[in-house]
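Input chain follows. Return structure tokens only.
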Amino acid sequence: MKIHQDIIGRIIKGEATEAEQLAYFEHLENNKEEKEAYIETRNLWVKTSMYDRIDPTEMEKGFNQYWNLINRSGKKVRQLTMTWLQYAAVIAIVITVGGLGGYFLKESISPQLVERIYTGAQKFSAQKGSIAVFELADGSKIWLNSGSELSYYNDPFTNERLADLQGEGYFEVKHDDESPFVVSVGELVIHDLGTTFNIKAYDQDDYIETTLVEGEVMIKDKNKRDLTGLQPLEQAYYDRIKKSLTISKIDPASTLAWKDGKFMFVKIELRKICEELSKWYDVEFVFENSQVGNQQFTIKNVSRSTTIDQLLKMMRISTGLTYTVESTTLGKDKIIIH
């Protein structure tokens, strides 16, 4: 069977009407081979749309050349459901003419991200120095910490509720056995099993923390292999460098204080405290003496509305910390710890 270029092309590019989409998806449900080919083709096409600098004319040209190659080949639809590397070998030939080869072959794009863009994700973010709170249509509630971004979307084929998180988020999920809630964070995927949990996964950090407050979660790798489950008040710490995962019991008060607009550090190394402060205040910390960064400090219930100047003065009075602030008109202010 030949793939319907006109309708699939307009669906992928968001030009098809709701009635056309519904009719075509119903058709796919009765044709497994064409459905698989459609998903693979759609994912390839969406990869190119992720890059705003690609000229739309070139994208259209590459897309049409790809379709022409498929139709000339005369192969059955099921033969199109090959691996990504096989696709890459074919697409590289076609797209070279249109100048898009590098974009089709980009390997750092996750399937979850491809799905997100296609299905029309809701995108949420929290600016530096702020906390964003929002409620999804299913009643689930999510908090985002400073500098965090989340995309949320529904997979029409698996009926999963899918989210991509960069930064830190606190989730109160309305559990639904027929519509699992799944959060992707870099190398890990967290599956909700009726849960309230916190995930911390900033790109600049070399770790991912998942803290369970209520219910149960299952942590998997990006290949969907089970790694570990969590029980309430357990935290999974994933070391991105060592590729290791450790589980520990925690006091949720300090881990979740941010959600309530508080800073809470109990016997934490100054270096780690400064890392958290830099995410909120958008400043850079520099240690003249690296040993100072290893010293442990305690800061409890300080409002995040406190300015960085006020907080540093509090730390100087209570701990004897000395510092210098270098303000700049461009870029981040620098705080030098002596």
